[in-house]
Amino acid sequence: MGMERGFVKVDSLCRTSLPSVSAVGDLINTPQLAHVGFAEGILVAERVGGIPVTPIDYDGVPRITYSDPEVASVGLTSTQATERGLKTVEFNYNLGGNGRSVILQTQGAAKVIAISEEDGPGRVIGVHIVGSRVSELIAEAQLIYNWDAEPSDVAQLIHPHPTQSEAIGEAHLALAGKPLHVHA
Ligand SMILES: Cc1cc2nc3c(=O)[nH]c(=O)nc-3n(C[C@H](O)[C@H](O)[C@H](O)COP(=O)(O)OP(=O)(O)OC[C@H]3O[C@@H](n4cnc5c(N)ncnc54)[C@H](O)[C@@H]3O)c2cc1C
Fold first, then answer.
1. What is the pLDDT along the chain (184 residues), one digit of tens a residue?
2. Among 27, 30, 32, residue to substitute to test ligand 1 (most atoms within 8 Å of Cβ)
3. Quick one: 72 and 31 in the same domain?
């Protein structure tokens, strides 16, 4: 079986060099995360079962550091975007403007990175959040990234008050040129 740097080599549909043998999870050189292993296992099961499958977009997998404060990310960082030659705009929303974060006495920020287009920000390519309990916010960011939403799409959505999810909404409002509770 083909190997590379200690990992089993696979193609984008988890097929190894051996016919009828697939590999998933920590065996292959993809993010070493439980939810990635689940997704790869489902992909293989569906492919073997004859269901059409598409390669996983690993940039769209949420990554969380369960520290205090937590760090949660999906999509590209500013550095990765630059390395890929993408022109971007970004907004860093300070949780000081978020009522629930003030109640929880947590500091932090929600950073949104979008493609820079001539007529304004295009699709969101990265969301990165630091603060207490922000792991729970990354699911919305995951939808925003994976459904190619633009800041103006998200800016229209009304977020419940007082929740930390408002920080996601407000970061997109600001990027769409309509800041609400923005603290420097
Ligand atoms: C301390 C720690 C914390 C983690 N925390 C997180 C987290 O918070 N979130 C997250 O997403 N990921 C986390 N991970 C990573 C996550 O656990 C792995 O990415 C995931 O378990 C990989 O799944 P897997 O099925 O590829 O391998 P495993 O879950 O390791 O499963 C492999 C199985 O194969 C068995 N096995 C091994 N050799 C043989 C053999 N010869 N014969 C039969 N059975 C065998 C093992 O006993 C094991 O049960 C953590 C990992 C560690 C080590």
1. 999 999 999 999 999 999 999 999 999 999 999 999 999 999 999 999 999 999 999 999 999 999 999 999 999 999 999 999 999 999 999 999 999 999 999 999 999 999 999 999 999 999 999 999 999 999 999 999 999 999 999 999 999 999 999 999 999 999 999 999 886 5
2. 32
3. no
Residue 162 domain boundaries: 60-175
Is residue 161 among the annotated active site residues? yes
- Do 163 and 110 lie in a common domain? yes
Q: How many angstroms separate the alpha carbon of residue 31 from the centre of ligand 1?
A: 12
Given 35, 128, 159, 161, which residue is catalytic? 161
- 10 phi, psi to nearest 5 deg: -135, 160
- pTM beyond cutoff 0.70: yes
Query: Which atom of ligand 1 sits closest to the CA of residue 27?
Result: 26
Looking at the structure, do residues 64 and 138 belong to the same domain, yes or no? yes
Cα 36 to ligand 1 centre (Å): 11
Instruction: Give backbone dihedrals phi and psi of 180, rounded to 5 degrees, phi first.
Output: -115, -80
Query: The tokens of 33 are what?
Result: 């995360």
- Residue 182 inside a domain? The answer is no
| Cα end-to-end distance, the chain, whole Å | 55
Q: How far is the CA of 32 from the centre of ligand 1 (A)?
A: 9
Same domain for 27 and 110, yes or no, is: no
Domain count, the chain: 2
| Site to substitute for ligand 1 among 7, 14, 33, most atoms within 8 A of C-beta | 33
- Does 64 share its domain with 50? no
Residues 134 and 51 in one domain: no
Per DSSP, helices labelled H in the chain are 34-48, 78-83, 99-103, 138-146, 151-155, 165-175
